């Protein structure tokens, strides 16, 4: 079983963005799609938490 992706800091968020860029440049595969989906969900969760903290 794979570890879930969690983003806790701005630095984590920046690394996730870099990983998305790397994956987008890689050939298509099922693993790539799963990782992109997991990254998207983790990034969205982080953005929502950050926005709530700013309100």
Question: What is the compact description of this entry?
Answer:
This protein has helices at residues 10-25, 30-54. The protein has 55 residues and is an all-alpha fold. α1 packs antiparallel against α2.
Task: Tell me what the structure shows.
This protein is mostly helical and 55 residues long. It contains two helices and no strands. Helix 1 packs antiparallel against helix 2 (30-54). The termini are far apart. The mean pLDDT is 93.
Topology:
Layout: H1 10-25, H2 30-54
Helix pairs in contact: 1-2
Global geometry: elongated
Mean of residue pLDDT values: 93
Which stretches of 5+ consecutive residues score pLDDT under 50? none
The Cα radius of gyration reads: 12 Å
- Total strands: 0
Gap from first CA to last CA: 36 Å
- Count of helical segments? 2
Q: Summarize the biggest pleated sheet.
A: none
Provide the succession of SSEs: HH
**Beta-strand share of residues:** under 5%
Helix content: over 70%
Structural class: mainly alpha
């Amino acid at each position: 079983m794979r570890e879930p992706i969690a983003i806790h800091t701005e630095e984590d968020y920046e690394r996730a963005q870099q990983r998305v860029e790397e994956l987008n440049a890689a050939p298509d595969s099922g693993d790539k799609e799963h990782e992109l989906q997991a990254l998207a969900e983790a990034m969205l969760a982080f953005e929502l938490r950050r926005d709530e903290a700013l309100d």
